[in-house]
Specification:
Elements lengths: L3 E4 L25 E5 L12 H11 L4 E5 L6 H5 L3 E4 L2 E7 L2 E4 L4 E4 L2 E6 L24 H13 L6 E4 L22 H12 L4 E4 L6 E3 L2 E3 L4 E3 L7
Length: 235
């Protein structure tokens, strides 16, 4: 049976998967998976540089298969140009063999479990960034992507084993101690995810973005922690 691990934002630095920090990796095979909940960040500049080539090669040489959803701090133009392939029952972007981008709104079957995946979020600091260089408009999901996600959930009777998103549902904002964003900085993604949280049935929901590691009932905020996804009866 496949083993599946999940972590939060790596922002272009995959070294938390080093053998010292992630000893479990020594036991894994290509049939096992490490999922990154957004802000992968290894495809960042408009042209590939030495750092990108080095770290992608380093990650590709790991024994497991790496999967990631997109966050807000990504070069979305380059991600959208990745070759596409049908895998896990949905479409993925192929970075390299063994490294795949999980698309917004897809329901994948990974290791025998169903995962609804939905990346993207609004960069709160985008007003201090430069469009096309340090942020991209595509960071915020559009209506077509949101509709696609709902259509796929409907095909599964709104029931999946796990949900993986970059940001969190709106209802968790005060629980995590964050204040409501001003009107001009409201993220439509969190309202969309709030709708899904109310209509979908799931075992666990994992998200990154908030740079905290915290248990919130069925929800799990991830940053540096690497959790192994297990059925509740196994935990």
């Amino acid at each position: 049976m496949s083993r599946i691990f999940i972590t939060g934002d790596i922002h272009g630095d995959p070294m938390r998967f080093s053998s010292k920090k992630f000893p479990e990796g020594k036991e894994l095979t290509e049939d096992d998976f490490c999922i990154i909940a957004g802000d992968f960040g290894l495809i960042w500049r408009n042209e590939r540089d030495k750092s990108e080539k080095y770290y992608l090669k380093w990650l590709q040489e790991k024994s497991w298969t790496t999967l990631f959803i997109d966050g807000n701090h990504e070069n979305h133009e380059r991600l959208n140009l990745l070759p596409k392939e049908e895998m896990f029952g949905g479409t993925v972007g192929v970075v390299r063999p063994g490294i795949y981008h999980l698309k917004r709104g897809e329901v994948y079957t990974i290791g025998g479990k169903t995962f609804f995946c939905f990346g993207g979020a609004l960069s709160w600091d985008r007003y201090h960034r430069e469009i096309g260089l340090t942020y991209w408009e595509e960071e915020v999901p559009n209506y077509a992507e949101m509709d696609y996600g709902l259509e796929n959930l409907e095909k599964h009777q709104y029931k999946v084993d796990y949900i993986v998103t970059h940001t969190m549902p709106n209802s968790l904002v005060p629980i995590l101690g964050f204040s409501k964003a001003p009107k001009d900085k409201e993220d439509p993604t969190i309202k969309y995810l709030d709708h899904i949280a109310h209509c979908a049935t799931f075992e666990r929901w994992y998200f990154g973005h908030m740079h905290v590691d915290k248990e919130l009932g069925k929800f799990r905020a991830l940053y540096f922690d690497i959790d192994e996804i297990k059925e509740q009866s196994d935990t």
